[in-house]
Design a protein that fits this description.
- InterPro entries: AAA_16, P-loop_NTPase.
- GO terms for molecular function: ATP binding.
- Residues 16-182 form the Orc1-like AAA ATPase domain.
- This is ATP-binding protein.
- Keywords: ATP-binding, Nucleotide-binding.
- This protein has 287 residues and is α/β, with parallel strands linked by helices.
- It folds into two domains: 20-89 and 129-210, P-loop containing nucleotide triphosphate hydrolases (Rossmann fold); 216-286, Helicase, Ruva Protein, domain 3.
- Helices cover 45% and strands 17% of the residues.
- The chain contains ten helices and eleven strands.
- The strands form four sheets. A five-stranded parallel beta sheet has the order 2-7-8-1-9, sandwiched between helices.
- α7 (216-229) crosses α8 (236-246) and α8 packs parallel to α10.
Amino acid sequence: MANPFKPTAGMTPPVLIGREDDLEEFEMALDNGVGDLGRLAYVTGPRGIGKTALLNAYGDIARDRKWDVIDETADQGFLDRLVEALTDTKTKVRSVELPTVRLDLGGTPVGLSTSLGGISLEPTQRALTFRRAAGQRLDVLEKKNRGLLITLDEVQASDITELRALATGMQHLIRERRNVAFVFAGLPSMVEDVLNDNVLTFLRRANRTVLSGIPIPEVHHAFRTIITTNGKQASDEVLDTLSASTRGYPFMIQLVGYWAWAYTKNSNVITTETTQKSDSASPTRSG
């Protein structure tokens, strides 16, 4: 039996525990149409709390509705990558630095050197702004009653220029009543830095989701459901131990569950001995 727990970073687990309300709100935002509050949103919380997993789940909801979804990470060059994804083109060479040439004057100790400078090669798609590229994609999608979702992970203020360009373009798309949604995510301090930027005031109106730990009773219920539906059994005592050891931390739920499942090997029962091995292995394996 395959292990149903997936602690791999950035991967959406089979069951997104404790986020049912967030998922339902996003479903309503897409179904309610243009102008719904949830179509411009951000997700924040500490590392490992499930921000990326929630963005992935939002993408799945949009894809189920036949929307186009583009997922990006807010590192250097992300805006160019968005435009490339929207226009289905690849970025070509942007500039070439020409060499320096030295001219020796024969019979004299004098020499001259000069730089030939550089030639900027801006391909056609570089002239497309994000707003225009997104608008062209939406022209096609909206004829089929479909929309466009863009998610941006790891938002921070280190390259504020690209964020400003993206936010400005998105603001115009929303004002034009395009069938678009934008959700970004980041650590609390990083997101606050972005929202406090004088040019990015538009994003302060975004719907906020602050992720925190999952209540232990919900963890207990999720463990029971996942374990039993995948062919194994565990007593209430074992489930209590597994649940408590996670402290409600989403990543730890996956990690503890992963090792509890792995240590049962071919057995169909997760035992107290298994939970002890899992509890000792999880902090070690997670660093």
